[in-house]
Amino acid sequence: MSDSIGEVKAQKVTLEGEFELECGQSFNDIELVYETYGALNTDATNAILICHALSGNHHAAGKYENEEKPGWWDSLIGPGKAVDTNKFFVVCPNNIGGCHGSLGPSSINHDTGDYYGPDFPIITVRDWVNSQAKLSDSLGIEKWHAVMGGSLGGMQALEWSYLFPKRIKKAGIIAAAPKLSAQNIAFNEVARQAILNDPDFEGGRYLDKSKYPKQGLKLARMVGHITYLSEEAMRSKFGRELKKEKLNFGYDAEFEIESYLRYQGDVFSESFDANTYLLMTKILDYFDPASNFEGKLVNAFESIEAQLLVVSFSTDWRFAPERSKEIVNALIEAKKNVSYLEIDSPHGHDSFLFANEDYVKGLSAFLEN
Amino acid sequence: MNTIEVIKNWIDKESQVLDLGCGDGEILNILSKEWGSTVLGVEINQDDINKCIQSGLNVIHQNIDEGLENFSDNSFDIVIMSQTIQVLKEPKKALQEVTRIGNESIVTIPNFGYWTTRINLLLSGKMPVTGTLPSAWHDTDNIHLCTIKDFENLCSECEIDVIEKCFFNKFGKESLLAKVAPNLFATTAMYKISK
């Protein structure tokens, strides 16, 4: 029934023309890498745009040649899966500012011939959505059947619904929030401080100096990773298990959870760009659609025409169900077509990555109704 | 007429309808398709929610017992609460909320005063198990059962007006007996109320 999509390859496109950013700066051309799965139908009505989260990229499903690890949403995208590639043409770009091939801080600035590094402008969710709209044009997709994503990806799907109401039929807003709380921003700030204060950060010009703030990025990821897991999941997976039989009265990784976090931090810091990480946390912090409407989310949603599905997870404390309900309640008040699902799942914020049965059923019902 | 026909009779076409405890969306589906209603359901059962979504209905996963504050005053033309009030922890509060959110509301209850229920209790000395109330006392979701008289008393206590009422027999149809002596011969009662 559910199967893998098999081997996939990334594609690259240059979206030509001036691209203005919310901050006032602009790019001349923007380069985006993306992947597609399934086939676009003749009238281009079966396309689904997948938006990735903070540390995600365009590799959402399938496997690269000679690689074992599938894309980050492979559990949900594929033949017979929640996002059924037998029925839909699925597109997932790496957002600008990213570090996996799209224009970002580790790209060369053609004006100077150097890496952008810290000079890369602070972009926003709106900038992303605008760049994704340009990608839609280049792919010949006038209207998406659905735009969806989890966490920061869900915020992009939400932004799509009021920014381009005519270009989107459905929006899947999963494990998201209408804006970050003080606590959310606090965690992001700890992550940023870890990176900014790494001596190898070099004011963001580490690439020019052949250095890399690995320790800072590792710490940032470790603190972030804690917020993605639930207390329950951490307890059942690691408890207070020791790596060795006895305490050794030292500062090495003794508990399994310490060793797990260090490992996760190491792996991540070897495959991600520190400037991109800083940028991503800032994009999250800035997201606040109600801010242009005197804090009234309901007014921000006025233009929405799409059918929306909001999904939250019981043990998610990063963007708890209450945060999703803020979105839902504003949509109800604005008299929009909204459905809301609260899924019972032990995996905390990361739940949106797992193929929980109720979640899969809800998603496919929404996409296929 | 059956319950859905009466509901259609009681509400204008193209009304905005909220169904609290909408189940698999049976009523909303009909109202949306045949009556042009703009509909929203509230449900707690995951399978039912997915059935609603499958039918293209808007549905919110929410526990009515935990409050309905997210729905503002008079935000719907009609609020339906069908066969739901008896499973709630605070039926009185729910009734007040229903009439706050809807300009008008339609509430359906199972009638515990139905004659077989009465005889069942009288003769067996045990909590009645009937076609409408099929579970044993310890296993039932129906924790706040009432009779037609009880419900009407609660409405007047809450200063809620009964605009229309309709009584159904065990086949879900209106009948002469159910009309003449509803508290004895109706298994189900449906009210259109407002505050």
How many distinct helices of chain A?
10
> How helical, in percent, are the residues of chain A?
25-40%
Q: What is the structural class of chain A? A: alpha/beta
Of all chain pairs, the largest interface belongs to: A-B, 21 and 22 residues
Instruction: For the largest sheet of chain A, list the strands in their spatial order.
Output: 1-4-8-5-9-10-11-12
Number of helix segments of chain B?
A: 8
What is the beta-strand fraction of chain A?
A: 15-25%
First-last Cα distance of chain A: 20 Å
Low-confidence stretches of chain B: none
Strand order of the largest sheet of chain B: 3-2-1-4-5-7-6
* Approximate helicity band of chain B: 25-40%
Whole-angstrom Rg of chain B: 16 Å
Overall pLDDT of chain B? 93
What does this structure look like?
- The complex is a heterodimer of chains A (369) and B (195).
- Chain A is 33% helix and 16% strand.
- Chain A contains ten helices and twelve strands.
- Chain A has helices at residues 125-139, 152-163, 182-196, 214-228, 231-237, 256-269, 274-286, 297-300, 321-333, 357-368; strands at 11-15, 19-20, 26-27, 30-37, 47-51, 77-78, 83-84, 89-93, 144-150, 168-174, 307-313, 337-343.
- In chain A, α1 packs across α2 (152-163), α3 (182-196) runs antiparallel to α7 and α4 (214-228) packs across α6.
- The longest helix of chain A has 15 residues, at 125-139.
- Chain A starts with 10 loop residues before the first strand and ends with a helix.
- In chain A, 50% of the residues are buried.
- The mean pLDDT of chain A is 96.
- Chain B is an alpha/beta fold.
- In chain B, 34% of the residues lie in helices and 23% in strands.
- In chain B, strands 3-2-1-4-5-7-6 form a seven-stranded mixed beta sheet, with helices on both faces.
- In chain B, β2 (38-43), α3 (46-54) and β3 (59-61) form a beta-alpha-beta unit.
- Chain B is globular, with a radius of gyration of 16 Å.
- Chain B starts with a helix and ends with a strand.
- Chain A binds chain B through residues 307, 309, 325, 328-329, 332-333, 335, 337-342, 358, 361-362, 365-366, 368-369, and chain B through 16, 38, 40, 46, 49-62, 70-72, 75.
